[in-house]
Amino acid sequence: MDLASAKYIGAGLAAIGVGMAALGVGNVFGSFLEGALRNPGAADGQQGRLFIGFAAAELLGLIAFVIAILILFVVK
Amino acid sequence: MAAEGSGIDPMHQFKVEPLFGADWSIAGHNIAFTNSALFMVLTLAGLWLFMLGGMKRQLVPGRWQAAVEGMSSFITNMMDANIGPKGRAFTPYVFSLFMFILFANLIGLIPLGVVPGVHPFTVTSHITLTAILAFFSFGIVVIVGFAKHGFHFFSLFVPYGTPWYIAILVAPIEFMSFLVRPFSLGLRLFVAMTAGHILLDVFASFVVQGLNAGGIGYGVSILSFIMIIGVSALELLVSAIQAYVFALLTSLYLNDAINLH
Questions:
Q1: Cα–Cα distance measured from residue B230 to residue B196, given in angstroms and rounded to the nearest whole number
Q2: Closest alpha carbon within chain B to A18
Q3: Taking CB atoms and an 8 Å limit, are A65 and B82 in contact across chains?
Q4: Looking at this predicted complex, what is its ipTM?
Q5: How many CB atoms within 10 Å of residue B25?
Q6: Residue A32 belongs to a domain with what CATH number?
Q7: What is the torsion angle, in degrees rounded to the nearest 10, for the CA atoms of residue B251, residue B160, residue A32 and residue B183?
Q8: What is the span of the domain harbouring residue A39?
Q9: Domain count of chain A?
Q10: What is the pTM of this model?
Q11: For residue A50, which residues of chain B lie inside 8 Å, CB to CB?
């Protein structure tokens, strides 16, 4: 396998991480909504924590994206 | 390089180019006025106009003043909830940070590209800017932490009530996670903006290429155009969320330094 094809395969594999992060972010918001519908009065006070969880879950997907970009554009 | 031959070059929009003064230099360093600098100035001007219109201090606020007050009370409430009364001293910093990032993100999303010869640019899609903002936040946390608590600030790395045999394991991990904070803070904003703009650029290329291809290409063009509208709406949301997350995480890190356990 030549280097160019290996790079594209690697970048494609790194993109799986972005999809996994999508699962995580969806889980964060889904669980929040589930809890918020059971107790709407407490929902507004927990929005800060919602976004902390969102940020933590999203960061790993963004790092996977950075890895894909590094593989495509930086690795020679 | 990634898409040679197909004509799509989604990374071109991030190129920093000198607009004028390409030969200006101070002590061997080029200080040309780039498109990045231009859009930072535009962000500053927009922010300045927005704040100027809302700081008339009327007793009954008009629409504009209500908008500015809504923004500032949003950040003040967030600081109060996360830090408490001691956080009031840092509210102006976090407010400036939030508003600058929000305005920079939104100005980067204005479709200036439809005007011939004008190239839109998002300053927050460069890690040079977001990392500087993140290092500001990190520097303030470190300085405030050491100024308030002295060397006792190192107890940040040992959670309260940890037995010593666990602390030996936990302290290096906490130390690493503390050091990674500025990078994750800057990286999150930079990558979120970069990814969104690449996505918009790729779909815009699909529209043009579909029109050139004809036949079934028209269908591809229409679908891509609808997709651009959807992604643009998503990007507006991401712009606001990323500015909020940056301010929120800064306030949480400040809380560690101010209210050390």
A1: 12
A2: B195
A3: no
A4: 0.83
A5: 11
A6: 1.20.20.10
A7: 50
A8: 3-73
A9: 1
A10: 0.88
A11: none
